[in-house]
Amino acid sequence: MAAILRGFLIRQAYNCTKSLVASMPACNLTTQVTPPPKVVKGKLEDLQPHIRQYILEKVDVCQPDNIHICDGTEEENVSMLNQLEKDGMIKRLTKYSNCWLARTDPKDVARVESKTVISTPTMRETVPIPREGVKGTVGKWMSPEDLEKALGERFPGCMKGRTMFVIPFSMGPLGSPLSKIGIQLTDSMYVVACMKIMTRMGKKALAALGQDDFVRCLHSVGQPLPMKTPMVNNWPCNPEKTLVTHIPDRREIQSFGSGYGGNSLLGKKCFALRIASRIAKDEGWLAEHMLILGLTNPQGHKRYIAASFPSACGKTNLAMITPTLPGWKAECVGDDIAWMKFDKEGRLRAINPEYGFFGVAPGTSDKTNPNAMRTCESNTVFTNVAERSDGGFFWEGLEKEIPKDVSITSWLGQENWTKESGKPAAHPNSRFCTPASQCPNLDPAWEDPEGVPIDAIVFGGRRPKGVPLVYEAFDWKHGVFIAAAMRSETTAAAEFKGKAIMHDPFAMRPFFGYNVGHYFQHWLDFQQKPGLQLPKMFHVNWFRTSEQGKFLWPGFGENTRVLDWILKRCDGEDVAQNSAIGLVPKEGSLNVDGLDGPLDMKALFNIPKDFWMEEVQEIRKYFEDQINDDLPKDISNELNSLEDRIKAM
Ligand code: TSX
Ligand code: MN
Predict the structure, then answer these.
(1) Disulfide check for 270: which of 70, 250, 266, 408 has CB 3.0–4.6 Å away?
(2) What is the pTM of this model?
């Protein structure tokens, strides 16, 4: 009753949802209820009714003290960063302009897959039923009843003593037909500061929305004030109760307990991948875990590729690659997510729904990714990196760049850190959150509302053995199979231990918004649609090693040599030959001119029969264990054909 009365009072205080007010029975207004929150910035009355209704509904539940409707202005941003600094949540990195360091509670450092769920009326909509006795690893379903219970145990009163920030944001260029609007409600100012970098946020997003509907995003760190337990690093969170939930039917996300990255910046993985992949299925397009890269060859011919890699493959490095081949230019459209749709001419067009990069810091250096380093030198929020005594940042991979007289404080606050401590200075999942607009090789068309035309789709993995540097799919169906069968070596996907070759179909395993089998079918269906110019598909592996464990391919900027071959294929050049697993470069067709050091082309392109027999068995087991009855027939046929071709070797 108190809740109903509270809702009534709130709505009455803001003089909206008139019909509800009129239908309320007369009741005793002297009953004890918390006062309605104060709107400290913006006006609820200025918002579209459907937005206002969403806010008030969640205000009812979360009971914040204040409401702040973000306008997205620079003044707002500055005042929030100052407040965060006063609260001790971020610290200025004085070596740069407007750069900040946040150190989290060490219990809140990564996405938590085990606490990420999708709720649909039936389980089968979200996940395949794994083979008897096998635990499913391709998504996690929660029943609507369990979800309601879980949310009810978490959100009521969770914003007491705090301010609810209302963040309207656009995923994709403002007003692009490919873009979508979300509204995130959050009690974390850190999240507001990062959303300002990662999305087009504020008044302009509201203007782009108009009367349309939006994706509903609710986020709370799950620590109403006063807190019952002491805070660590001034970073409120509630790891015991962390839960990231998606309700795709309602285009809704509710995330509780974590302030970190993908758990709290709901526009990114939750919206742009999980919810958007479901919207894309319903609307006939693709929401993918892919970078978008523009490549211009020495003849001035420009093309774009989209590429999908699991973690630890250097996706951001490829997105910002500096070509070593003379006369080539590479320009970045996006480093993580691509929304792609076939246009009226049947061309596949891609936008980057994001506005910034939320990249893994360790390993990034002038050697591996100078463009990322330049991007990060101003207006950047770093999280869980180490700090230099001269006000600079530090992480693993920057060892050569610290002057002698500079000392390091680790992400855990350990002063005078040295690598002899045996612990990393920066958390392995530490991040930079930085505006895309600052990227030196950002593509001029990166905000083109029509998107950029995609000529090739590249899949990849970290495969020390057996998988050649590059091969091309025979056709679209075979390409979908290759992507479905993707595997990659992982060191630390936070929750997994040791080195293992993990299955990661389409690099989407943690991000499917619906049943992975139906997702494969959605991709396959494009083959049947008339009038589409289906891009060619490829698989690359920069990480093959010799018997001695040495990398066989120099990688990094030299990868343009592989991209050159891929684009030659897109031009229809006769530079490929058949193999059991796909089309591989004809002898001499991969440009290796001027590469220093010996290159063992045989070892790079060898396709060992015994390895591939085992690979087929492993893929078959994975498909049967995990995708089971939901595996499309086209995919199992492709697997059988692959096996036949390998047997015939
Ligand atoms: O990002 C990488 N790419 C893609 C670059 C566009 N990395 C780093 C991966 C960790 C996230 C790579 N590492 C790549 C690569 O192509 N290749 C390798 C393996 C490698 C590492 C070092 C050397 C060669 C290959 N050579 C020397 O260190 C001298
Ligand atoms: Mn990613």
Answers:
(1) 266
(2) 0.95
